[in-house]
Specification:
By secondary structure, this protein is of the alpha+beta class. It has a domain of about 70 residues. It is built from one helix and three strands, in the order H-E-E-E. A three-stranded antiparallel sheet has the order 1-2-3, with no helix packed on it. The longest helix has about 35 residues. It is rod-shaped and about 140 Å long. This is Chloride channel protein.
Length: about 100
């Protein structure tokens, strides 16, 4: 009679591999949940510390545009002249341009 040791572990390798795979999958899922929770709480604490942002109006509707005041042109006086839409006043020794008073 020959002695041969029994080896009942022949089909056990795939069960071990499956257990390792499932364990790593659960560890990765838990790490993902922890990372999302940490990110959420960090974002909430940082945004609470920031000043509140008030929304600004991006444009003004046409109905609310303010029309510029019409330019009031005064009449030329006797000692004034208009040359190329510039007003000049006569002085004793020449002419003085009045740049803020167009004609």
């Amino acid at each position: 009679m020959s002695y041969r040791p029994q080896n009942n572990n022949d089909g056990l390798w795939w069960e071990i591999a499956l257990g390792i795979f499932v364990g790593q999958l659960m560890t990765a899922a838990l790490a993902g949940v922890v990372a999302v929770c940490l990110g959420y709480f960090t974002l909430r604490s940082v945004s609470a510390a920031l000043p509140a942002v008030t929304p600004q109006q991006l444009y003004t509707p046409r109905s609310q545009h303010v029309a510029p005041a019409p330019l009031q042109l005064r009449e030329l006086e006797s000692d004034e002249r208009c040359i190329q839409h510039k007003r000049f006043r006569r002085l004793s020794n020449g002419w003085q341009e009045l740049p803020n008073d167009p004609c």
